[in-house]
Write a structure and sequence with these properties.
Blueprint lengths: L1 H6 L2 H13 L2 H16 L3 E6 L27 E3 L5 E5 L3 H5 L5 E6 H6 L7 E6 L6 E4 H8 L10 E6 L9 E6 L8 H10 L1 H8 L9 E5 L7 E6 L7 H20 L4 E4 L11 H18 L6 E6 L2 H13 L2
Parallel strand pairs: 3-5, 7-12, 8-10, 8-11, 11-12
Antiparallel strand pairs: 1-4, 2-3, 5-6, 9-10
This protein binds adenosine-5'-diphosphate.
Length: 323
């Protein structure tokens, strides 16, 4: 079994190799992602255990190698050029055998990485130090375990044609009704795709006022979060525009409070609620641009999900007119 739990670590080795070749934060993110994937597969890591005085020549063992929650094992440590001390782990027995012969044990990857938060003097874990090495810093390990991105944050407004429920994004917005208990249009599609647990969570929210927003988990969606906002029914009054603007503004604010950095909006109110699409697009784009301008350092990717080509063309027209 241990073999299975190690052989799949190839994806980590490949991601590290790509990082060596290309460098850059995207490649770094891919390494973090590979570790996360392997943790969910219950993978293991190979840990060398030895007396510090028998450590191989290419390494300078740290004094009094720590235990770091891994029972009473004495862990092999190494020191990087900058003087930092690292525990050592290998993705495979083959990687371990590239160094001098040591006794090894295999330990669940998740335990090894979770142990890093208790490191006092160690900077992190040196993965495969005899091959294509990766210095997995304590900070990066914690980000990886928390599922946080390591990629840079950027501000962008994008457009997508298609079904919002299929989007691979952190958060999608639902054009809900004030009951938050599901309905037609995009609301129905989101509830169907997310599954009945969404309805259960929504029941506990006790509705939502027009222009306001509430957040739930994404359940069966690729999106981790759903922000439910209630658009105004169009009457041609000035308050309609204010309420529609509030939907976008409050959703973006709620996203920020939840550390969300990518969000997709449907064309709120433009279906059953009858808001003219061009007017609605003008408001949506103005709020999005305004929000980004006032949160320049936050990094938010805002996607307008257009269910059809017609809606997409309307956004593009409004964008041109306001350029
Ligand atoms: P509202 O009640 O706020 O008008 P609707 O769901 O009726 O909400 O429509 C809002 C917009 O969402 C409409 O432009 C509709 O074409 C669009 N829409 C419907 N289903 C989807 C979907 N699966 N993905 C993205 N947009 C959708």
């Amino acid at each position: 079994m241990a073999e299975d739990r190690l052989s799949g670590n190839r994806i980590i080795e490949e991601a590290i190799a790509a990082l060596h070749e290309q460098g850059g934060v995207q490649a770094l993110d891919a390494v973090a992602e590979a570790f996360r994937k392997r943790i969910s597969d219950n993978a293991e890591l190979v840990i060398p255990v030895m007396q510090p005085e028998t450590a191989v020549k290419s390494m300078r063992p740290g004094k009094g190698a720590g235990t770091n929650g891994l029972s009473d094992l004495r862990l092999l440590q190494m020191q990087s050029d900058d003087g930092k001390r690292w525990n050592v782990a290998f993705t495979s027995l083959e990687e371990a055998s590239k160094g001098e012969k040591t006794t090894t044990v295999t330990i669940p990857m998740e335990n090894v990485l979770r142990g890093a938060k208790d490191f006092k003097q160690e900077a992190g874990i040196a993965i495969n130090p005899f091959g294509k090495a990766f210095l997995f810093s304590k900070e990066l390990i914690e980000k990886t375990l928390a599922g946080e991105r390591t990629a840079p944050l950027e501000n962008k407004i994008l457009f997508d044609i298609g079904d919002i429920t299929k989007m691979d994004i952190e958060c999608i917005v639902n054009a809900a009704n004030s009951s938050l208990l599901g309905g037609g249009g995009v609301d129905g599609a989101i509830h169907r795709a997310a599954g009945k647990e969404l309805l259960e969570e929504c029941r506990e929210l006790h509705g939502c006022k027009t222009g306001q927003a509430k957040i739930t988990k994404g359940y069966n969606l690729k999106a981790k979060h759903i922000i439910h906002t209630v658009g105004p029914v169009y009457h041609g009054k000035e308050s309609d525009a204010q309420l529609l603007a509030a939907c976008y503004q409050n959703s973006l604010e709620l996203a920020r409070q939840n550390n969300i950095h990518s969000i997709a909006f449907p064309a709120i109110s433009t279906g059953i609620y009858g808001y003219p699409k061009e007017e609605a697009a003008t408001i949506a784009l103005a709020v999005a641009a305004g929000w980004i301008a006032t949160h320049k350092d936050y990094g938010m990717v805002i996607v307008f999900s257009c269910f059809d080509r017609e809606t997409y063309d309307i956004y593009q027209k409004v964008l041109k007119e306001n350029a």
